[in-house]
Amino acid sequence: MSERTEYITRPREEIASVLERERRFLTASEIYARLKRARARMALSTVYRTLERLRKRGDVAERVDDAGEVSYMLCAPQRHHHHAICRKCGRVEDVDCTAIDRFSQALKASHGFVLDDHAMEFFGRCKQCQ
Ligand SMILES: [Zn+2]
Ligand SMILES: [Zn+2]
Ligand SMILES: [Zn+2]
After folding, report:
1. pTM of the full predicted structure?
2. Ligand lying closest to the C-alpha of residue 130
3. Residues 6+ apart with CB under 8 A from 100
4. Distance between CA atoms of residues 25 and 115, nearest Å
5. Which ligand is nearest to the CA of 58?
6. Which tens digits make up the pLDDT trace of 65-87?
7. Same domain flag for 13 and 57
8. Same domain, 65 and 87
9. 36 CA to middle of ligand 3, Å?
10. How far, rounded to the nearest angstrom, does the alpha carbon of residue 101 sit from its chain's CA centroid?
């Protein structure tokens, strides 16, 4: 591997390894703090840029909360699914989308509304936090 390739791939690998350790949404500055703790030298702007690249490649999911704060998690958004988020520890479970067909039919029947897309998040407590 040439030095140049190494220079390009390292931030991505370091960020991916931070995200792999935690099944929860982390903000860019939380990721930056963890990288610093692990003694990885990376500017916050590089963290942002790399996260954006990972998101475009379809390797991470992006989430914007009610306050407008953006956070990231390793995920495969191309495979349609939803997230069940623990309110206590932040752990995220990937949940298959099963109930939507029946809901879509009910929506059409009672409101004449044709559903062509949806976004859902579930909140509660994970196994460990119950
Ligand atoms: Zn996911
Ligand atoms: Zn939990
Ligand atoms: Zn769905």
Report:
1. 0.81
2. 2
3. 115, 118
4. 28
5. 1
6. 989 999 999 998 788 999 999 99
7. yes
8. no
9. 37
10. 25
